[in-house]
Write a structure and sequence with these properties.
Helix content is about 30%, strand content about 15%. The protein has helices at about 40-45, 50, 80-95, 115-120, 155-160, 165-170, 210-220, 220-235, 265-275, 300-315, and strands at about 15-20, 55-60, 100-105, 125-130, 180-185, 210, 240-245, 280-290. An 8-stranded parallel beta sheet has the order 2-1-3-8-7-4-5-6, sandwiched between helices.
Length: about 325
């Protein structure tokens, strides 16, 4: 049984919005779009809306995916991602104003720019970043061919203000979330790759990290409570939850572009999410990176939906 130490919680009026962007990923093979665009439909097929007793907030269509490189921003589909982020930012604000808790079904991780921009417009908010990868640190040596960066692999860096103005400074609001207001949970510190900078290489980075080895050593519930305590001490008005499916171990979540050899179990993810969702300061969440094309049996989708539903149910039981 999952137990959490948080008691000051609220029942969520969950509102599910589809934002099926695949703009932030490179093609998995020549001429083929990334399959994450089918993620919302797959999770809905597993009954996520009904099981959460959620309201259907509709769907926001992203611009068309382009296979062409874009030297203007240096990111694949960079201009389209910027456009979609601005459009997506409008939707969570409407849902929040109506008293809802937005649950955004992505999509690749570049969709984080929409909700963080939405919250930046409202004030100062934090980010609970559940992700098996860094998503912050750029290559030490930029690509020789402009336009080869992928926003899904650098989304945390973009959200915290590192990158071209078109992606990071909409309405002059850079950064959408301050580094000191980010808690990164579940990072798998992969074998050192000299071609990649790491968060720890940036002496000015204030991102607080609870990597996978910390979770294994101290437990998911303890780690989640520590992360929430961090968020509670920050001068913020609330926080958003980013959930990348690759934070799960590849044994249960192989259906991502970069499977995690040392990730969370379903039970560990459920415990962490439940603790975060039990906080009245959690204002919304999005889910990304799951690719139905890599999950022919649908087992990975079932595991992901089970974890999310169980987390919400556990949080609400402690109301």
């Amino acid at each position: 049984m999952i137990t959490i130490a948080i008691h000051d919680v609220i029942m969520r009026r969950i509102m599910v919005l589809d934002a099926a962007s695949n703009l932030g990923l490179a093609p998995p093979r020549d001429g083929h779009e990334p399959g994450v665009r089918m993620m919302p439909a797959a999770l809905r097929d597993k009954g996520i809306v009904l099981r959460l007793s959620a309201e259907d907030a509709g769907r926001l269509e992203p611009p068309p995916y382009s296979f062409d490189l874009e030297p203007v921003t240096g990111y694949r589909n960079g201009s389209a991602i910027a456009q979609f982020a601005a459009e997506l930012a409008d939707r969570p604000s409407v849902l929040l104003d109506s008293g809802g808790f937005p649950l955004v079904l992505g999509g690749d991780c570049s969709i984080v720019l929409g909700p963080t921009l939405a919250l930046r417009r409202r004030g100062s908010y934090g980010l609970a970043f559940l992700d098996g990868h860094d998503d912050y640190s750029p290559p030490r040596h930029p690509p020789k061919i402009p336009g080869r960066y992928t926003a899904a692999g650098l989304d945390l860096g973009l959200a915290t203000g590192h990158g071209p103005d078109l992606l990071t400074n909409h309405d002059g609001l850079r950064p959408y979330v301050e580094e000191r207001h980010v808690v990164h949970i579940g990072l798998d510190r992969e074998p050192e790759d000299e071609s990649i900078l790491r968060v720890e290489d940036f002496s000015t980075s204030a991102i607080r990290s609870y990597p996978i080895e910390h979770i294994h050593a101290h437990g998911a519930s303890t780690t989640a409570s520590q992360a929430l305590a961090d968020l509670n001490t920050m001068p913020i008005e609330g926080f958003w939850i980013h959930l990348d499916a690759d934070v799960l171990d590849k044994s249960v979540m192989p259906a991502v572009d970069s499977p995690n050899p040392d990730g969370l179990s379903v039970n560990e993810l459920t415990r962490i999410l439940a603790t975060l969702l039990a906080s009245p300061n959690a204002v919304g969440m999005h889910v990304g990176i799951y690719d139905p094309e890599l999950d022919p049996t649908g087992q990975a989708a079932t595991a992901l939906v089970d974890a999310i539903v169980s987390a919400f149910e556990t949080a609400n039981k402690h109301n």
